[in-house]
């Protein structure tokens, strides 16, 4: 695992950064996800969206430490904020299901009994969205989150 640190913490969210052995910089961003839910969903108000960004041009080669670092950042964030996470995989590059499978693989490998995870695919004429949610296993509102999504 690589060392990481939060770059910014503010109302708009939290950003973590880490640099690989090959000097490639990655960002993991958490922002409030209330815009993705109907306004009547009170339990949805504490959900954060997570995004990963490469902060470099070009391609990277597979690096297990990147995966381990991202998973540890997810754990730390959820542990500190005690909140569910939502992620969105769009079909602009036709790789949305590859990303969903990656989340599922990470979940299967690292989550144990502490968390629950599921996803839905929303289809339109122009594109598809795969949306996944990760929450604590004790979160009784987990299924409600999907019902309250305000997508498309």
Summarize this structure as a short list of keywords or feature phrases:
152 residues, 7 strands, Aminopeptidase, 3 helices, alpha+beta, single chain
Shape: globular
Provide the gyration radius in Å.
15 Å
| Overall number of structural domains | 1
Largest sheet: 7 strands, mixed
General description of the model:
This protein has a 7-stranded mixed β-sheet. The N and C termini lie far apart (37 Å). Helix content is 26%, strand content 35%. 22% of the residues are buried. The chain contains 3 helices and 7 strands. It has helices spanning 64-81, 96-110, 142-147; strands spanning 4-10, 13-19, 25-32, 48-54, 85-90, 115-123, 128-136. The mean pLDDT is 89. The radius of gyration is 15 Å and the shape is globular. With 152 residues, it is of the alpha+beta class. It has a single domain (4-147), classed as 3-Layer(aba) Sandwich (Aminopeptidase), CATH 3.40.630. InterPro entries: DUF6169. Pfam families: DUF6169.
């Amino acid at each position: 695992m690589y060392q990481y640190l939060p770059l910014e913490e503010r109302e708009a969210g939290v950003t973590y950064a880490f640099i690989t052995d090959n000097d490639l910089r990655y960002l993991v961003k958490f922002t409030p996800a209330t815009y993705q839910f109907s306004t009547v969903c009170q339990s949805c108000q504490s959900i954060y969206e997570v995004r990963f960004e490469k902060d470099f041009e070009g391609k990277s080669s597979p690096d297990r430490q990147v995966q381990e670092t991202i998973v540890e950042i997810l754990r730390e964030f959820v542990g500190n904020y005690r909140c569910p996470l939502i992620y969105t995989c769009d079909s602009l590059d036709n790789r949305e299901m590859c990303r969903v499978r990656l989340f599922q693989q990470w979940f299967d490998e690292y989550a144990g009994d502490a968390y629950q995870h599921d996803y839905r695919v929303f289809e339109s004429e122009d594109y598809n969205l795969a949306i996944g949610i990760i929450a604590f296993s004790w979160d009784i509102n987990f299924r409600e989150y999907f019902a309250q999504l305000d997508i498309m």
